[in-house]
Amino acid sequence: MYISSLSLMNFRNYENQKIRFSPYTNLIYGDNAQGKTNILEALYLFSQGRSHRTKLDRELIKFGADSARLKLKFHDSDRDYTALMQMVRNGRKTININHIPITKLSMLMNYLNIVMFSPEDLNLIKGSPSARRQFIDSAISQLYPAYLISLTEYHKALVQKSSLLKSIKRGADKTMLSVWNEQLAKNCARIMNERHAFINELCTFAKVIQKEISNEDFDVHYVPSIRVDKVDADTIFNFLELHSRREIEFKSALYGIQRDDINVFINNNNARIYGSQGQQRSATLSLKIAQAEYIHSVKGEYPVLLLDDIMSELDINRRTYLAEKIKNKQVFITSTDTDLVKSTDQTKLFYVKQGQVYEGE
Ligand SMILES: Nc1ncnc2c1ncn2[C@@H]1O[C@H](COP(=O)(O)OP(=O)(O)O)[C@@H](O)[C@H]1O
Ligand SMILES: [Mg+2]
Questions:
Q1: pTM for the full model?
Q2: What pLDDT score does 361 carry?
Q3: Spatial separation of the C-alpha atoms in residues 188 and 154, rounded to whole Å
Q4: Which of 60, 138, 341, 355 has its CA 20 to 30 A from that of 153?
Q5: CATH fold of 1-113+301-361, please?
Q6: In the β-sheet with 261-266, what is the strand arrangement from edge to edge?
Q7: pLDDT at position 172, please?
Q8: Nearest of 196, 340, 215 to residue 267 by alpha carbon
Q9: Mean pLDDT, to the nearest integer, of 165-169?
Q10: Model confidence pLDDT, tens digit, residues 191-232
Q11: Cβ neighbours for 45, distance < 8 A, ≥ 6 positions apart
Q12: Strands, DSSP E only, in 36-142?
């Protein structure tokens, strides 16, 4: 899968820019705050429907403009795609792919697969469980859009249950709570099973990669908040009902996929607690490359890789390893320093200065 061109109108600090990309390495360089990440952000939007940096679409519209327009051409082994996106300052974002209106995020997920690796991800191992949940949720949704539908339904019901728990009195009638628990249980079971399967698959790839990068043993465990022998709707419902007294006492939804986590082990030690910074970085790199390889194994297409400013964060061995892995695949690399990336005749250079892109400089 590869992207051949991007046009930006009033997007971030770009007024009117068209960029043609190489199907292999695209190296986007320039000083800080010139617009390098903005380009990756635009690409990412077409895959995930939202920015990796903000939830607010209006921040993406150029200061002083009322709307932004983006156009992306991309290709897989079957077809060519033209995608259009428009954002209006006080309205909703619209997306079309080959003239089909994309009305749901789960529809968008069927098209462009992207794996992004940015400096914030280096916190994945150390950071909060919610960052790790977001990583697995976005990875699974890209492959199985139905997962995203379950997730959205689950969270809608969870909001209702949470607000009920806030107002419910101790010893009060639990009938309404049971109604929400029943609704949650079905999606909860589905999501738990999908997470479990995905983490096992991801781990199989990541083990090999971590061995190659640093000759270390690697493992990823799913840590569900609800521990039951058999994960199905009935069992989850019974679990929630059994624990409802405690939830009422704490006025909060204490059990469910909103409290799940993953644990990463390097040489049998929990990397969050015992890993060095270098180990935590390689672990994240392994997980990201594993994600790309897993997508390839399921879809038969390699996703597009976006590497935002991470070359300076990796040591020479890891950079060399990464360069070998991305050979012959489409990758976008941003950097302030071109020396960090070994240019080959497959590399296309873009120099970015104040919202202008100069090709091949
Ligand atoms: N909505 C916007 N309108 C105009 N300029 C913006 C907008 N959002 C961000 N910028 C500008 O974009 C620049 C940052 O771009 P970015 O791609 O993050 O830089 P870098 O090259 O360091 O990756 C800053 O100069 C910032 O002021
Ligand atoms: Mg940047």
A1: 0.94
A2: 63
A3: 7
A4: 60
A5: Rossmann fold (3.40.50)
A6: 218-223, 261-266, 269-270
A7: 66
A8: 215
A9: 86
A10: 999 999 999 999 999 999 999 998 999 999 999 999 999 999
A11: 51, 60, 70, 85
A12: 67-75, 80-88, 94-97, 100-101, 114-117
Q: Where are the domains of the chain?
A: 1-113+301-361, 128-299
| Ligand 2 midpoint to CA 186 (Å) | 41
Residue to probe by mutation, ligand 1, list 17, 34, 336, 354, most atoms within 8 Å of CB: 34
Is it the case that residue 171 has pLDDT exceeding 70?
Answer: no
Distance of CA 255 to the CA centre of its chain: 24
Stretch 143-151: mean pLDDT: 95
User: Is the CB of 38 inside a 6 Å radius of any atom of ligand 1?
Assistant: yes
| Rounded distance from Cα 308 to ligand 2 centre (Å) | 7
268 phi, psi to nearest 5 deg = 70, 5
Cα(334) to centroid(ligand 1), Å: 14
Q: What is the mean pLDDT of the chain?
A: 94
Minimal-distance CA residue to ligand 1 atom 19: 33
Give the ligand with the smallest distance to the CA of 307. 2
| 51 within 8 A of 45, measured Cβ to Cβ | yes
What pLDDT was estimated at residue 16? 98
Q: Between helices 175-214 and 145-167, what is the axis angle to 10°?
A: 130
- Ligand 1 atom nearest 39 alpha carbon: 17
Separation CA 119–CA 88 (nearest Å): 29
| Residue 149 pLDDT | 95
Dihedral angle sign, alpha carbons of residues 90, 91, 97, 99: negative
Fold observed for domain 128-299 = Glutathione S-transferase Yfyf (Class Pi); Chain A, domain 2 (1.20.1050)
Asked if the model's pLDDT at residue 52 lies above 80, the reply is yes
Single-letter amino acid, residue 169:
K
- Dihedral sign (CA 48, 52, 56, 57): negative
For residues 229-241, average pLDDT: 97
Residue 58 has pLDDT above 80, yes or no: yes
Q: Atom 24, ligand 1: which residue's CA is nearest?
A: 33
272 in contact with ligand 1, CB cutoff 6 A: no
12 lines ligand 1 (CB under 6 A): yes
Ligand 1 and 32: CB distance under 6 A = yes
Token digits of residue 314: 């990796």
